[in-house]
Amino acid sequence: MLSSITPETPPGNLAALAEDHYFGANPPPKDLEKHVAQARAFIDYHSAAGRRLVLVTSGGTTVPLEKQTVRFIDNFSAGTRGATSAEYFLEAGYAVLFLHRQFSLLPFSRHYSHATDCFLDFLREGPDGSVVARDEDAAKMLHVLRKYRDARDRNMLLVLPFVSISDYLHELRSIARLMRPLGPRGLLYLAAAVSDFFVPPDRMSEHKIQSTNAVDAVKKVGAAAGARPGAAEEEETFDNFDSSPSIPRSKRLVIDLDPVPKFLKNLVEGWSPQGMIVSFKLETDPTILVHKARYSLDRYQHHLVIGNLLSTRKWEVVFVSPGNPDHWIRVPFRKGSTEDSIPDTVAANDEPLDPKSLPDGEP
Ligand code: PAZ
User: Fold this and answer.
1) Whose CA is nearest to atom 10 of ligand 1?
2) 282 ligand 1 Cβ < 6 A
């Protein structure tokens, strides 16, 4: 497919070819069809009601190193921002489609699933052998429980999982396309931490990558005993790295990753052209954060980039939007976190954001 690219290929066609190539080469998650059916029913239901709907993506994508995956590279994200934001969007009247990394934090249950806030710590044994909330926690638990039940009973929250980068991209593309009829009533709030690099399937080991060559001996015996000719050699010569390693394969692991194509342009121009699109940018170096956020906005022409630094993401974020100065939201020490301000600010603006209208979060 990519061989049809020439120096004359227009940039728009390049994006389409890269998309065809990626989605053709990387298989969809096994539950994609089921998820698409669930998402379609959810979107149609809320669209018919004239309701605003937000797709919140949350958690980190994995990069599998093996097809039968034992080992993978992960992206940082607990899912706090996405799960918290989803609750705020529900509060603001949005239906929420929550596309999250499997087992990362979920709206409502997040209050009781952190390692230091194990849900069992909130319970005690009742007099009759029942289990009840501890007196000091009951009021908050009841509040969260009511909100959760309300979202569930009114079909306001659909939760769908992903694991790997290719799962995520397949799900995102399908859901974004389904959201097209919503027009500007559809908001895409992309808080997931998405891998920039991956191992393409044609260079991915089928089985667990071995750290010793003990298996080679077994395979040779198997080959000698009549296994398919060449099978042992195929295994021995498999290498994730393109060039020949100078240290034997049995002693090292070289991980050679390709860049994941940037699909934000495809999302903005093709998958959901009328939706409001908010992306997040995570960096660790404060000197490049705003520049990278502005670059992303200029390149993809969407509505808003929310930039944050790994070390300060709970206390400050920067809103970067077209034609507006950078706008920092800072939360005073020990007075909540940025999670409390971002979704309200975004939800208050169906149209591209004007930071002048945002609440001033300066300490
Ligand atoms: O999930 P979390 O609350 O631990 O972290 C949130 C975040 C830092 C992953 C998110 O705010 C973010 O910046 N997402 C985009 C990451 C990226 O640049 O791919």
Assistant:
1) 191
2) yes
First-to-last alpha carbon distance for the chain, in angstroms, is: 54
For residue 350 the two structure tokens come to 């169906």
Instruction: Kindly report the protein residue whose alpha carbon is nearest to atom 8 of ligand 1.
Output: 282
* 281 touches ligand 1 (CB under 6 Å): yes
Ligand 1: distance of its center to the CA of 225 in Å?
Answer: 53
Percent of the residues in the chain that have a pLDDT greater than 70, as a whole number: 80
Taking alpha carbons only, the member of 263, 313, 267, 296 closest to residue 61 is 263
ipTM over 0.90: yes
234 C-alpha to ligand 1 centroid (Å) = 40
Residue bearing the bigger pLDDT, 286 or 237: 286
* 277 C-beta neighbours (distance < 10 Å), count: 25
323 backbone φψ class: left, alpha, beta (φ>0; ψ -120 to 50): left
How far apart (Å, rounded) are the C-alpha atoms in residues 216 and 238? 12
Q: Which residue has the least CA distance to atom 19 on ligand 1?
A: 193
Give the DSSP H/E element, type plus range, for residue 197. Answer: strand 197-198
Ligand 1 mean position to 44 CA, how many Å? 29
Give the position, in ligand 1's atom list, of the atom nearest the Cα of 279: 15
pLDDT tens readout for residues 249-277: 667 788 899 999 999 999 999 999 999 99
Q: Is pLDDT above 50 for 25?
A: yes
The full 3-state SS of 14-49, as one line of letters, equals HHHHHHHHHHHHCCCCCCHHHHHHHHHHHHHHHHHC
Distances (CA, A) of 317 to 115, 167, 264: 25, 28, 21
Q: Give the C-alpha separation, 169 to 266, whole Å.
A: 11
Confidence of residue 171 (pLDDT cuts 50, 70, 90): very high
